[in-house]
Structure formats: structure tokens, C-alpha cells
């Protein structure tokens, strides 16, 4: 096993761990702000997985997917944060 394969395995392992922990935080809460941060972490973990797929397969298409995920994640985080800001304070 060479260094590149080990690096990809570490990226995938870390991204999967972060993904599962963020999904648990997104489901359990306790506040909406925690859920927004968890959503951003889910998108970041998926971004790392798409990048690792591009590295292992050698296909540039996965990098296009990663760029799309980054844009969607950014917009989703901004929209959800604005919804939380516009909601009444006693909703949490």
C-alpha cells in the first residue's frame, strides 16, 4: 500500500465518521443552530468523499460534483440561518 492509497483511506474514514456524527446531531438537535452547523458538516463530509472518489478513480467528474455540493451546501446554510433569524425567539 502506497502513501496515496493510505491518504485516501484516511480521508474516507474521517469523512464517514464526521458524516454519521453530524447526522446524529442534526436529528437530535437540541437547537436549530446545532442543526445548521451539522448540515454544513454533512455537506463538507460529502465534499471530502467526492474528492476522494476523484482521487481514486482519476475522473474529473467527481470534482464537478464536489463543486455542486459546495454551492448547494452554502446556499442551504444561508437559507436555513435566515429562517432561524426570522423565527420567534421562543421557538427553541
TrEMBL record:
Lineage top rank: taxon: Bacteria
Membrane topology type: Multi-pass membrane protein
Keyword Cell membrane attached: yes
GO cellular component, one term: plasma membrane
InterPro entries (UniProt xref): MrpF/PhaF-like (IPR007208)
GO molecular function: sodium:proton antiporter activity
Keyword vocabulary terms for this entry: Cell membrane, Membrane, Transmembrane, Transmembrane helix, Transport
Pfam families, per database record: MrpF_PhaF
Principal location class: membrane
Membrane-crossing residue ranges in chain numbering: 6-24, 36-55, 61-81
Location(s), subcellular: Cell membrane
Xref: PANTHER family: NA(+)/H(+) ANTIPORTER SUBUNIT F1, NA(+)_H(+) ANTIPORTER SUBUNIT F
Similarity remark: Belongs to the CPA3 antiporters (TC 2.A.63) subunit F family.
UniProt-recorded name of the protein: Cation:proton antiporter
